[in-house]
Structure formats: structure tokens, C-alpha cells
User: What shape does this take?
Amino acid sequence: MSNSDSSILGNLDPVLLGRGGAALAGVLGLVFLASPLFLLTAVAADPEVAQVAFIIQGTAVVFGLCLVAISVVGRHGRSILATGAPALLAVVLLLTGPVLGYVIGVFSWAGLLLASVFVAGIPGIWTAYKARPES
Assistant: This one.
């Protein structure tokens, strides 16, 4: 019995995982693009959120655009890290931000969102672009 037979991960197709990451990045990108609409209710409820609302809205839209671009550029599924890592980061950002009520603080969350554009968004687009098949 080989190692690939005993491991569930050994039987998964890496291209399928890459395409799944690209699809998840695309869906979460659309969520981040729509997030300024949901933030309006949080602004009305919490004055601390109102102080950074425009920064959060702007960076959420930019991160959403990055995720959608990663989804389009990485749809071939050749780079799991370029598509999956930003998608997982987007899930964490959604959970620690709007879903759980900004558990790390609004200002810290806004900083993480901005850093995510430069750490995961733009490099993810570049890596997926470099891994695409030659036409």
C-alpha cells in the first residue's frame, strides 16, 4: 500500500484544488465588492466604525477586485497557492470583521484589510498570471 492510497490528500487533483481556490476567490471577491452596502448598517450602529468607514469601504472594494482578478487569471488551476491562500485570507477577514463584530478592533481590521491587498491580492494576481498555460 503506497502513501497516496492512505492519504485523502494524495488522491486529490492539484488542478482541481487550484480551480476550486479560484472559484472561492471569485465568490468572496463579489462578497467584498458588495460589502460597502453591508457596512452602512454597521456605521449606523457603531460610531467607531463610522470613523474608518470610507477607508474600509475603499480597501474592501480593492481587495474584492483583487480576488476577482485572481479568480479570472487563476481559473486554469495551475497555482493552488496563488488562488487558495487569498481565498482563505478572505474567509478569515470576513469572520474576524463583519461576521463576529470586528473582534480585533475596527482600526486593526482595516489595517489587515489594507495589508491583505499588498500581501495576498496583488502577489496572488501576479503568481496566477505567471503560472497560466502558454497560449
